[in-house]
Structures are given as C-alpha cells and as structure tokens.
Design a protein that fits this description.
Elements: E1 7-12, H1 19-33, E2 39-44, H2 47-56, E3 63-66, H3 83-88, E4 93-96, H4 99-104, H5 109-121, E5 125-130, H6 134-138, H7 142-153, H8 159-163, E6 166-169, H9 183-201, H10 203-208, E7 210-214, H11 219-226, E8 233-236, H12 243-252
Parallel strand pairs: 1-2, 1-8, 2-3, 3-4, 4-5, 5-6, 6-7, 7-8
The structure holds phosphoenolpyruvate (PEP).
Phosphoenolpyruvate is lined by residues 12, 170, 175-176, 214-217, 235-239.
C-alpha cells in the first residue's frame, strides 16, 4: 500500500493475557512478521506483562506500548505507574484517553493532556484517542465532539511534541461491537482531524502526524480502511489478541 505517511498498527490487549500467554503471543507474532519494516507495529499488553514482553521483543522490530499512565512524576499515588517506570521497561508508546478510560475512570480532556505532556517529557510516544458516541453521531455532533477532544487533549503542545504524537480516531460505537465505520465515515473524520490540526499547529504538522482508525478492525476490513488517504494505521482491540489475526491485519495492509 503506497501511503504518504508510514502506517502504524497497534494492538490494545486491554485487561487480557497472563505473562505466559503474552510472551507466547509475541513470540508467534514476531515469527509471523519477520523482518518487515514497512509498517510500525506496536503491542500494548497490560502492565503486568510489559517487562516480559519487552524482554522477548528486545531484538524485534515490534515496539511495546502501555495502555495508560499517570500524569504525575512520582509520589503518593497508590496504584499508579509513571512514564519513567514505563521507559525503564523499554516501553516506547502509551495509549492515552481511550474511551473506556474516559467512560469508566472519568478521564477528562485536561487529564489526557497532562498525561500526554508527561509522556512526551519522558520520551514516550502518546497515542491519544478521540471518538464520538452513537448518540453524538446521531445528533450530528461528531465534529464538535472530536474538535473539542482534540483541543482539550492536545492543548499547549508545541510542534516538536505534536510530531511525537499519534492520534487514534475510535468511534465509541464501533469499539468491540463488530460495527465498523464505513471507509467514507472514517476518511471524513480523519480528514476533519487533519484540518483541525492544520488550524491549530499548521499544515506541516498536520501532514506529518499519523492518525489511526480504531473500532472492530479485522483482517478482512483492514486493507480497505487503511487505504483511505487520511487513515495512517489502526488501533486494534479484539483482533490483536490472536497472533494470526493481528499479523493478517498487518500483512493485509502491505503491498
Ligand atoms: C479498542 O479498544 O481500541 C478497539 C479498537 O477495540 P476493537 O478492535 O475490539 O473494536
């Protein structure tokens, strides 16, 4: 697939996989993908498996991401993990503002923004998630919602920080539901996101930044979705839990 920006496909394992299961998964994924370099591949295991997965992938092209982190550097925050601790485990990416965290942990745009800045300061690449609910889409509020989330979650980021950031557009109604946005729906919102970034940070950044699509991406719909001009990769939930289906997604997007 001939794309302007290098594709990035990340697997969000959510609260799944023991250490044994996680290392088995990345072992077969690494075998399946071999030495391909045309797509950036990231796996995001739960915290408990980060160390073991990182060690398994030390000589691999597959990078490791976390699913969340604290906005604080250190201190009395029971149960939290900071960016430095992730770097310590050779983690390169971190998913921030996933809709499940926005919903179940009441994460606000302001909190996502603080986390994004803390991640960047530590040398992590944040994957910042935005997306509308079905009710918001039905009420024609998609652009207003996404525009607000972008503004709030990326507030005050300078050009360099934006270049180190990945955006994930994940319509909430498409996550884990088997309902995928049509290619037109995805392209429309991705183009809108790029226009918004162009307005806030200029055209050069807007043309450089990568915008992933997430929401029931599977081997049989990945190629069509990722062939859209403004779709630069995928954030994959369910289908990333199996090495075969995740590598099929990646391989189906390659030439
Ligand atoms: C996700 O949770 O980021 C996601 C896209 O999940 P799924 O692929 O299962 O819809």
């Amino acid at each position: 697939m001939n794309k302007e920006r290098k594709l990035i496909v990340a697997g969000n394992w959510k609260m799944n996989k023991t250490v044994t299961e996680a290392t088995a998964l990345v072992e077969s994924l690494d075998r399946d993908l071999g030495t391909q370099t045309d797509v950036d591949v990231v796996v995001c295991p739960p915290f408990t498996a980060l160390d073991a997965v990182s060690a398994k992938l030390r000589n691999s092209l597959i990078k490791v991401g976390a699913q969340n982190m604290s906005e604080n550097d250190y201190g009395a925050f029971t149960g939290e993990i900071n960016a430095g601790m992730l770097r310590d485990l050779l983690v390169h990416y971190v998913i921030l503002g996933h809709s499940e965290r926005r919903e179940y942990q009441q994460e606000s745009d302001a909190m996502v923004c603080s986390k994004t800045k803390a991640a960047l300061a530590a040398g992590l690449k944040p994957i910042v998630c935005v997306g509308e609910s079905l009710a918001q889409r039905d009420a024609n509020e998609t652009e207003a919602v996404i525009g607000g989330q972008l503004q709030g979650s990326l507030a005050g980021l300078d050009a360099e920080q934006m270049k180190g950031t990945v955006i994930a557009y994940e319509p909430v109604w498409a996550i884990g539901t088997g309902k995928t946005a049509t290619t037109e729906q995805a392209q429309q919102v991705h183009a809108f996101i790029r226009r918004e970034i162009s307005k806030s940070h200029g055209n050069e950044i807007a043309q450089t930044i990568r915008i992933q699509y997430g929401g029931s991406v599977k081997p049989d719909n990945a190629r069509e979705l990722l062939s859209q001009p403004d779709v630069d990769g995928a954030l994959v939930g369910g289908a990333s839990l199996d090495a075969g289906s995740f590598s099929d997604i990646i391989n189906n997007t390659r030439n």
